[in-house]
C-alpha cells in the first residue's frame, strides 16, 4: 500500500515537471519561430466582422501570416494599443485627447488610418407608418421630448427608445451627431427611460418584434426585414435613405469614418496589411458587409 | 505503520484546517479589495450626486439610486415567485409525492438548477418578453417583471433542493405523533413539519434570494437596462437597470483607476453589503428560533 502511494507521488511529480517543461518550450518556440509574421488586431465591435473578413482573406493569400482579431469596443482596442498589447487598434471614433496623452506617457504614438466608412441607420418596425424624420425630430424622440408616435406623424403608440450601451462607440457617436446635432456645447442627454441594450442583436430583435420601438445600428448590421428611416438634415430638406451612394456623396446625415490606429507610422508587415486594406480588393469586402468603401 | 498513520493524520488534519480557514481569508481579501477600489469614490464624487437619480457615467452622472432600486425590485419580484413555488415544490416532493414521482422530480429540479442563465436569458428575449408585451399590453416586454420571472425560475431549484433536504431530515416520529393526535396531512405539514425544518427552509430562501440578487446575465438581457428610479407601483412593468448588469456591461471598457471604475467597485461594495445584511437577518432569525427550541427541550 505504502509503496503504491510512493509510486503515485513519483508519477504525479514526473507529470507536473513534464507539464512545466513542455509549457516552457512551446512558449519559446512560438516566440522565436515567426516574430514578424503575427498581427494582433483588437477593438470596435462595429468593425470586428469586417476586420475578421479582411484577416481571413489576407491569411489565405499569405499563409505565413497570422492575424488575430478580437472585439470588445473602441475603448478596449485603444486601451490595448496604449498599453502596447496590440499592433492595430480598431476604432469607430477618433482617439480622444486624453488617450493620446496616456499613450505618449507609455512611449506610444498613435497614428490614424481611415479604413472604411459607416452609416448609422435609424430603424423602426416594418408596421410603423413613420418612414421620414428630420435629425431634430430624432433628437427630440431620444431626449424624451416626444413620447408618442403621433407627435411625429405616426400611430397613437408610446415610443420605446432603444440604444446601445454607453461604452459603445456607436452610442457616443449617436449622442454627439444626432442628439446634440454636432453642437459640442449642447448637454442634451438620452431620456432616462431609454433602453440600453448590450448588443446589436438585442436592438434588432426588439425592433423586429415591437411596433413601438425605435433603434439605431450600423448600416452593415441592419437586416432586410427592418424598416430604415429616411433622414433630412433640417426641416424642409430632402429625406435621404442610407446607402453606399448617399454616404459617399455625404448627403446622408449620420455617417462616419472608421479607423485603425497603429503605433507610429506602420512598417513592414503591418504596412503591407494596411496598404492591402485600402486596395480595391479589400474595399470590395467592405461593400459586401454593408459598410461604405473609402474612395480615394 | 502506526507512526506513518499518525503522520498522515497530521497532514490531513492540517489540510482540512487550511481549507476551512481559507474561506475566511478569501472573504476578507475580497472585501479588502472592494474597499480599496471602491472607497476612493467617496473622495471623488459628492454623496449628494451619488444619491441622485441620473446614471450616465460617460458624462459623470453617478447617481446609483436607480441601480439599487432596480436590483431590489427585480429581486423582490423573484423572491415572491421563487419562495412559494420553491417551498411548495419541496413540500410536495418530500411529504406528498409517491416514491416514483419523487425519483423523477428531484433530478429534474436539479437539472433545472444546472441550466445556464444565458440560455434562460435567450428564452426571455425571444419568448417571454414578446409574450408579456402583448399579453399585458405594455410598451415593451423588456421589463423588471420579465427579469423577476426568469430569476424566480433560476432561484426555484436552489430553494427546492435545500428546503427539501431540511424537510427530509425532520424525524418521522414528529409526523407520526401529529397523525396520532388526529391532525390532517395539511395540518401536519403546516404546524409540525415546516416549523421543525424552519432553519433549513429559511436558509433555502436566503440562498435563493442570494442567487437572484447576484444573477447578471439574464437580467442584463431582459430587463432593458434603463436606469430609471423604480419606486412607483408600476415600476415592475417598466424597464430597470440592476447593479449587477451595470457592473457587467460597463466594467469591460472602463479606464483603470478612473472615477467611473471606482464607482463600479463602490456598487460592488453596496451589493456585498446588501447580501451581508440578508445573511445576518437570516442567521439571527435561525439563531433565535433555535434558542427557543432548546429552552422547550430542556
What does this structure look like?
Chain A has 296 residues and is of the alpha/beta class. Chain A contains 10 helices and 11 strands. Chain A has helices at 2-33, 48-61, 74-82, 97-105, 135-143, 169-179, 200-209, 244-248, 268-277, 280-288, and strands spanning 38-43, 66-70, 88-91, 110-124, 132-134, 160-164, 195-197, 213-218, 227-228, 230-232, 255-263. In chain A, strands 1, 2, 3, 4, 6, 7, 8, 9 and 11 form a 9-stranded mixed β-sheet that branches. In chain A, α3 runs parallel beside α4. Chain A is globular, with a radius of gyration of 24 Å. Chain B starts with a helix and ends with a helix. In chain B, α5 crosses α7. Chain B is globular. In chain B, a hairpin with a 4-residue loop joins β1 and β2. Chain B has 13 helices and 2 strands. The model of chain B has no long low-confidence stretch (mean pLDDT 88). Chain B is mainly α and 298 residues long. Chain B has one domain: MetI-like fold (Orthogonal Bundle). The chains are: A alpha/beta (296), B mainly alpha (298). At the A-B interface, α3, β7 and α7 of A face α6 of B.
